[in-house]
Design a protein that fits this description.
Number of strands: 0
Helix content: 55-70%
Order of helices and strands: HHH
Radius of gyration: 27 Å
CATH class of the domain at 57-123: Mainly Alpha
Largest sheet: none
Shape: flat
Strand content: under 5%
Length: 123
């Protein structure tokens, strides 16, 4: 165990170095003073449309985005099959069709559940 003391020393030195850098940055960083018009949103010289410049979106927007991302990941899984489809033969074709069928079932479920409809009036 004495042969590995330098690993412990390296660990301690990295912690000390990281803490030292954080302390140094905390001492020299710019401290912003929120006085005057600095906290107001700026939109090219005109008054902002919303008072806080933050508009809330319906949760359905995020759910629709998540469903879109899930089905976009399908391309990442189908790309290797498309590159090597001639070497995989019938087994690869059956696996790809099964994969797309499972995704199709998920798409149908999301469609029937109403996850693909973005309605602003329903919160």
């Amino acid at each position: 165990m004495m042969d590995y003391w330098y690993f412990f020393l390296f660990f301690v030195m990295s912690i000390v170095f990281s803490a030292g850098l954080l302390l140094f940055i905390a001492l020299i960083r710019y401290r912003r003073r929120d006085i005057g018009d600095k906290t107001l949103p700026y939109e090219c010289g005109v008054d902002p449309e919303t008072p806080t410049a933050r508009e809330s979106y319906s949760i359905r927007f995020y759910l629709l985005t998540l469903v879109f991302i899930i089905f976009e990941v399908e391309t990442f899984f189908l790309f290797p099959w498309a590159v090597a489809h001639d070497k995989l033969g019938l087994f690869g074709l059956v696996e790809a069709v099964l994969f797309v069928a499972i995704l199709g079932l998920g798409y149908l479920y999301a469609w029937k559940a109403g996850a693909l409809e973005f309605r602003r009036d329903i919160e």
